Amino acid sequence: MLKLNDVNITFNKGTVNERKALCEMNLHINKGDFVTVIGSNGAGKSTLMNAVCGSYEVDSGHILLAGKDVTRLREHQRAKYIGRLFQDPLKGTAPNMTIEENLGLAYGRGKKRTLAFGISKRDINVFREKLASLGLGLEDRMKTPVGLLSGGQRQALTLMMATIVTPSLLLLDEHTAALDPKTAGKVLEITNRIVKENNITTLMITHNIQNALEYGNRTLVLSQGKLLMDIEGERRENMTTEDLMKLYADSTDDVMSDKMILKS
Ligand SMILES: Nc1ncnc2c1ncn2[C@@H]1O[C@H](COP(=O)(O)OP(=O)(O)O)[C@@H](O)[C@H]1O
Ligand SMILES: [Mg+2]
């Protein structure tokens, strides 16, 4: 489904600030995989996602999405296959537009239709039903500008927008890190349900090791631009947070940040 073959990205090449952010990265993600990604600060997690969605150009190597080589495709050309969420709830929605209008835009993506065609009654019913399933009461606030929503409500809405037309690939970059623990938990549960119900191939970066093992079917550990571990199957099922932390400490001199050890 997603393949990275020998992908390299180096920043500030030839300067004192030269930094290899991705180093000979080889990765094969299967269709329907829900992959969690962890690693210390600067390990290359966000760079990996930026490379996949085309925000960063690779220096060398190839990226294949659904069998198609997308390495040289521009970001907007890949956007119709890829849904993406960031840490910042302010990204991904238009604050002055209502919930309904934001969903209308997302729903129209990939179809020969824009907001100018209006949102049909049928669409509104679809939106209402989907919003109700979030359990945040947003179905009664469809005419509310998105800028008035809380961070958690906005992330849940952004997630719905990213998946209302099922993407080939969903990229989540610490999308719950800016939320309080309770809200983060709720958004994670919603994420898990949407991903599973629609069988969406997903990469989810998290700073929380416990969440990394709890959600999804596979965990990647990145360190210094390299894939340090790729854990799945029975080995993963039996792995505790402590096991993973010990493995990590034994295999790299990278320091695990306090954030990663937090259990909330
Ligand atoms: N646009 C950029 N310009 C220069 N250096 C960058 C850029 N993006 C990331 N880096 C560097 O690449 C390395 C990996 O960064 P990143 O992928 O953001 O790490 P992570 O998401 O794992 O914390 C870091 O050293 C970071 O400073
Ligand atoms: Mg990052």
Summarize the structure.
The protein is α/β, with parallel strands linked by helices and 264 residues long. 36% of the residues lie in helices and 23% in strands. The protein has helices at residues 45-53, 75-78, 99-108, 121-134, 151-163, 181-198, 209-214, 233-237, 241-251, 258-261; strands at residues 2-11, 19-29, 34-38, 60-65, 68-69, 82-85, 169-173, 201-205, 218-223, 226-232.
How does this model look, in words?
The protein has 264 residues and is α/β, with parallel strands linked by helices. It has a single domain (2-261), classed as Rossmann fold (3-Layer(aba) Sandwich). Helices cover 36% and strands 23% of the residues. The protein has ten helices and ten strands. The strands form two sheets. The chain has a six-stranded mixed sheet, sandwiched between helices. The chain has a four-stranded antiparallel sheet with strand order 2-1-4-5, covered by helices on one side. Helix 3 packs parallel to helix 5 (151-163) and helix 5 packs parallel to helix 6. The longest helix has 18 residues, at 181-198. It is globular. The two termini are 32 Å apart. The model has no long low-confidence stretch (mean pLDDT 93). The structure holds adenosine-5'-diphosphate and magnesium ion. Residues 11, 19, 21, 39, 41-47 line the site of adenosine-5'-diphosphate (ADP).
